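fyi for ur records
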Amino acid sequence: MIVVRKVKTMVQQRLKSYPAVALVGPRQSGKTTLARSLSTDYFDLEQEPERLRLDVQWHSLISTKRLIVLDEAQSWPELFPRLRGVIDMERKRFGRFLMLGSVSPALMKHVSESLAGRLSLVELNPFTLTELSDTPLTELWLRGGFPDGGILTSERYPQWQKDYLDLLTQRDLPNWGLSAKPQVMRRLTKMLAAVHGQLWNASQIGQSLGLSYHTVNNYVHFLEGAFLIRKLQPWFANLKKRLVRNPKCYWRDTGILHSLLGVEDYETLLNQPWVGASWEGFVIEQILNTLNSTGQPVDPWFFRTADGTEIDLMFRYKNKLWAIEVKLTSSPSLQDFNSLNRAADLVGADKRVLISQTTQSVIGEKQISCSLPELLKIFVKP
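which gave:
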């Protein structure tokens, strides 16, 4: 199956306006494949021979008008001052460098120090539902969106996810500067799967692992930087009600989540007590990643009061405040919508959306009850 990545158009547009573009996202999400479709001048900077090849060819390469692709650019820090010098010599010459990176903090440190104002940042995530028109939603939810993780070849799930995390904990995280032992990180990833969709409590997890909450937060910060974990921040307002102030923690890819929790098929998934939290996280990521791929990223929040009034996802989009509630049901009730409206009234939401697995979507000016695919169509329509 050939899948055209939605973000490709955005990368091409940014290259017409900036000397350099950085394409970031988790390992194995398709960055290299996309970049190679744009240029044959490709260098994997994690490999010493590739660094030497780039160094030897540097002067001839920068004199051409071809796009130069620099993969895992953050692994060779000495490159960034060199890039700044070349770009500053011809600031109006655009589309020269495409940098790829898997660890956002490391890459952005070098970017902020050397390439501020000279580079545009684009995030590539695993496949979204809008990119897989022939793939059932249930398969994407079960196996996740990594190209090699089973969504294109189902027999690879869940072993691919297990191997992916093993490589991450044994090689990648130590190489990126994390001092945690692989066995500690494996235990941490399983615990993060167990608290998926729950309020973040680093102290509780630290007690189980024999670590301080500072250490746990540092480890999870690396997983956030590797685009594997999302901490959804709470929405604050000057309300009379007490508000929850801890973030919620989600695995960004449900295939990895389900692999960690030992789920191998859809029927088993539906029988899990935490299936609602899995569905909630899946819907949130599909919405945020779809908006990102269309060049309209948003700052997401959730809302919860101390007495349990809640909105699963909030964001501002086209000058409107959206409040989205996620339900794992095919028959949403009027009570579900009334609960959403009560919470949405507290925050003054302009749009109220109830996402379920319904086959009968009702889309009004202010209130929407629909399936996930129907909502995503609203965001990707011209």
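The chain is about 45% helix and 20% strand. thats all i got for now
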